[in-house]
Amino acid sequence: MMHFVKKILKVIVSGVLLWLFLKNLDWFSLVSILMQIRWIWFTPVFVLGPIGILLLAVRWRLLLIKLGLNISHIQAARGIWTGAFFNLFLLGTTGGDLYRLVFVRNLIPGSDNKITSSIILDRIFGVGSLLFLGIWGFIYKKHLMIQMLNEVGPVKISTFTIYTCFCVIFLILLFIILANAKSETWLGKFKDFVWSIGIQIIAEIKDPKLVFNSFVVSLAIHIVSFTSGYFISRAVGLHIDFIELGLFTSASAFILALPISINGLGLREALLVVFFQYNGYSCGINYGIKESAIIFSFVGVVCDFVRVIPGGLWFALVKESDTKKI
């Protein structure tokens, strides 16, 4: 019940933030910016999309193989690509992760613990490498980060603090309950499941070669993402410095991690407006900064949709039995 309430609150926050941005927009300017889009810049964006997916598949496959789940590169790519497709239409990334779990379990039955461990580690490397870059972005753009935090506002910061305290208390109580759970009960079985996952994750993290390779691939994934964002900015008439964009994207990950909206929807646009104002970015002298930031975000979302469409088609047109034969 609490989980459902939090989802509803996030939807409300995202909706309110979007409404605040959209209500005073110059819609004529938005249409004008869209009309002047230079489509040639989208060519590298659509080339980089599959490259990013394949790099994600490489990282996930590294973790799976270490756990003894030897799937092919194509199978890993299908799991990642189709999972990304589901993520676009579901709240959060849970839907895509669930698909990956079911997909590999159908290929290798009886491996739920190992698959779950690989997905958790995959997330850890992705977020960890982004936060690593974010630290450098925070140091390099300290004043911008302070301005963005002010934009988030004290109410949302206090919400994050309360949420964090709630999570800590919940984890402590869960630990106490699980520690006293008997093995024959469903709670005891859940404890054994969590314990086995923890052991597998620790074993993988102890492998320095695996950690290094996964971290390097993660950095490459983020660079591909930053490069796509750079080309999107050029397509809509923006002249954002590549390093500036990469540092902002990494540093803003700290704030987007706040559990107050759905996938950063609304909050991401607020941070982009601050970033554009800080640097004076605009799609042209006749266009406002706010409208330019919204267009940049909107076009980025559309490009994400195009990027994951092959995953949906793969899911709909290719039988799972065919994938097992690969």
Give the CA-CA distance, first to last residue.
42 Å
Structural class: mainly alpha
- Taken in chain order, the helices and strands follow as HHHHHHHHHHHHHH
Strand content: under 5%
What's the number of domains? 1
The helicity comes to over 70%
- What Rg do the Cα atoms give? 21 Å
Overall spatial form: globular
Low-confidence stretches: none
Number of helices: 14
Largest sheet: none
E-strand count: 0
Mean pLDDT across residues: 78
Question: Concise description?
Answer:
The chain is an all-alpha fold and 326 residues long. It has one domain. Helix content is 81%, strand content 0%.
Question: What does this protein structure show overall?
Answer:
By secondary structure, the chain is mostly helical. It has one domain. It is about 80% helix and about 0% strand. It contains 14 helices and no strands. Helix 2 packs across helix 13 and helix 3 crosses helix 6. The radius of gyration is 21 Å and the shape is globular.
Tell me the layout of helices and strands.
Layout lengths: L1 H21 L4 H9 L6 H25 L6 H17 L4 H14 L4 H29 L1 H11 L1 H26 L6 H20 L2 H28 L6 H15 L10 H13 L9 H29 L2 H6 L1
Offer a few descriptive terms.
globular, 326 residues
